[in-house]
């Protein structure tokens, strides 16, 4: 090598890599593998409740430098809080759509050498007081190269890429107004768990969830084993098959014959239908256990099925081949006809098995409606014959800004179709699920979100349109188009979307709704059942939708159609969809705000020919002044399903702690006890706290006007839990968010307790709750685990008392474990323990080998 070449090589070696070049594919991979991208809450006390200061920090240990100035690389992050900052640290910040944001280097960018750190502070909407508000899988893109995920963000261990949330201005949402939340600590839990009521194991094992109306235990017992026989009414063949499957889980294999075959001289389980029991009330049953005879009589097939569930509920979790059951007489009827669970897997798909597990467990607790939220902005989750784009594009998110191959990536999916949250049910899968649900007396109510929250279907149909237009098939292309080319209407939704409203002025929008409905009906018929209810959403339509639509202007100009301006369009859409469903014999359903002209006036019920029209009432943020809509809609003639956010939203955290998953817009937390305390017969009686956690002592004064009373109680159809899945990306996560809170919904939907007239502070409530919670810990949680459902376990309460550790659980009899060496060794807690180093104390609750609560310390 010449002297000149040596000098040149030395100069090149001293220049930061890529100072005058773009990143190659291998360099991009090295940079994202070796650079840690972390988020932090800097200050929630920045601007009242309106915005917070956050940051994104890049710590470069990759051996690859980012050059200063304008570059061809972009960093993409998922931020559910819309970022207001336009430029920081030499990076331009761009909001793409929904939660997707992009950071682009400008001339002011100073570069990022190996070994250096870059911090980008930004202002974003609202606040962040929980790790799960930040989304994983930030990624980097260079020109047309394959995107690369920052390795430390490609995880569900959120603290791998989020700085600790521990200061007061991080743990609290705001300081103006004052955030009055009591943050969860071991000592606060201990105080809340304290009760003078003590529940015996025997009483807990006898407790059936949901609680029957009348239970009389008698002397004597039945020893149920495989020597017993079953006789059944012929119409109960389907129920019998499920019953035998359930018995087999306990090692019990009972032979069964129709009731026209004479009983053998051996103990017998008799299954019968008698429409006269409980005065003929649907779904009622009578269960009698005697020494050598068990009789289940239902008012109908569903009643017999529920009697079976009560029998199985008396089994200990560890029962096998032989079960001793105390003799008992039970008479029971459901409180409400609609006992439901709403499940959103449009935001994030959690796999087929999650749905089957949910249906199976709902049936065990006598719930009968699965409201399946199969479509939203972020995904379409069911194969529809004839519209393959709905799943080819609408079921997947990836990095494709044209959205011709997938939807825009959202909610922590990252840039690849293999990312979390992607997928769908095939028609074959769904038919199988329908059959599974039908056998368990569960009606699946599908929801086609419209006209808002419909971005997945809109983009899928736009891709279909583009494909067919290229093929010269113009008429076909527009047949199911949901958006109008050239529509300049401007709006932004609560979830930061600018293009998620179906154009309600296009006839093709209604053709789409009818096509999907037709295909759904076909699937239900193939499953041997019928599509009785269809929910069309109706909620959170972006203000400004359709304002610049030429199709809508044309509609306004036509006389006699009842549409004169934008304010008429939501009722117009609702009318057309309801008419279509009416002709098909299907009951329509909508979220409450999809049925309101304004804050207090529902759409005229008499304008709809439908015999029934269900309304899910969710918005009971008391200070917002619309929590009386349940009664307004019922009084107007709608069939109301109580779905209130403050008690029944299972996407909310179990407690006020940054480690807890979930949004917390309706209330700071919802634990199982809060859901258990929901009172369906007294909507206003559930008004406990404002969003700032200020106690409500005078609801009418808070709202500032007279609150209507319920005039038509027969129109309160039932209640249901809700889980929305923005922060929930896996099957394990979604099942833990639903269970065990769903059991409290089952309890309230089936059984009316005496304490509902005496209040949540009464001794009656404490007794009922303690027995329910003890039944969870001694029986139900373990049964769930046996069915591969790991329910959320309450974090223990604990404190030091005269130098000794005392601990308790929200669920009495739940196993508590403690460690005196910061989690290295664990022991079962049975009595106070002497503590020398309180800082090293750790506690957790446990069920079985694989299900443990979060770990807590004392401080």
From TrEMBL:
Residues 1-21 form the signal peptide. Residues 33-188 form the Chitobiase/beta-hexosaminidases N-terminal domain. It catalyses: Hydrolysis of terminal non-reducing N-acetyl-D-hexosamine residues in N-acetyl-beta-D-hexosaminides. SMART domains: CHB_HEX. It is an enzyme of class 3 (hydrolase). The keyword Protein biosynthesis does not apply. Belongs to the glycosyl hydrolase 20 family. This is beta-N-acetylhexosaminidase.
